[in-house]
Amino acid sequence: MTENYKLVSRRLCLGLVFLLALVANSCAAPGTAAVTPAPAAELLQTTAPVARDARPISRDGKLLLATTTSTQDSGLLDYLLPDFVRQTGVEVDVVAVGTGQALALGRDGNADLLLVHDPDQEREFMAAGYGIRREDVMYNDFVLVGSEADPAGVRGMSSAADAFRQIAEARATFVSRGDASGTHAKELSIWKAAGIEPTGDWYISAGQGMGELLTMAAELQAYTLSDRATYLARQKQGLNLALLVEGDPVLLNPYRVIAINPKNSPAVQAELANQFIDWIISVPVQEEIAQFGRQEYGQSLFMPDSALWRASKAGD
After folding, report:
1. Which residues neighbour 103 within 8 Å (Cβ) at sequence distance 6 or greater?
2. Do 15 and 164 belong together in one domain?
């Protein structure tokens, strides 16, 4: 079942990239350089540009979920979604991109629901009427990672902003998502808190998903900001980066699910979206989220946080 999700998601991502290529070929001036896609095996873990087209994507009776690369790269969706299919008989197509791109798909009616992690962008999205329901799902945290050598000397610092300031002062290489994702938004907020405008050859804007960004940072022996789940999953696969800064309250990383307003597009399946939301915020599924990662990593990669989950634990 896991491979089926990957193939389904890959086909959808390939279709989107192909559509973008058609648009670019018809509109771009001669000689315009084409974007080189990531290898097919990595398409789920990229933030390659997604075509924004007012025409609805065909659902073929499947639920279309636009989500962040971290939920895919960590393995969480492959772990959870087969249960939803077994219970409902509804298959789920997954588009894993940055939060900014996921919200754009929602605005255009090219998704039924979103699973994202940028509270400010989410609030704006809801205020504009693009979503009809928004629920807490889970949270984890961001961590600052880098080479064991730690040239800026930030290891063990308690303040993310102070660590970022020290990296800038040392002009140590830092690799940024650079893709309007929730992780990128968090990173920019930390630079702002540090009073730093990150520019110069030491600061690299990659435009990549979380998994690829970690690989790039390891190759460059650079610093980067990562969600903990993707970092641990990649470290298990041999990623050579050390966890240097963690625990600052500003590094909290909440995820929420949003049902898209069917007024955005006649293709939006609001009833199925609400069915999915009811499922993922339910106590049994929240317990599954709590268990994810414990056996393999010795800790939960995401902490359940739905209102139903919190109510169930209120007396504990």
Report:
1. 114, 116, 118, 121, 122, 125, 130
2. no
Contact between 164 and 196 under an 8 Å Cβ cutoff? The reply is yes
> For residue 180, what are the contacts with CB-CB under 8 A and spacing of at least 6?
98, 99, 100, 101
* 136 and 147 part of one domain: no
**CA 272 to CA 157: how far, in whole Å?**
45
pLDDT higher than threshold 50 for residue 305: yes
> Closest by alpha carbon to 112, among 271, 218, 288, 239?
271
Query: Residue 197 is encoded by which pair of tokens?
Result: 């405008």
What are the distances in angstroms from CA 45 to CA 42, 69, 113? 5, 6, 19
Structural domain boundaries enclosing 16: 2-140+254-312
Q: Check residues 77 and 2 and name the one with the higher pLDDT.
A: 77
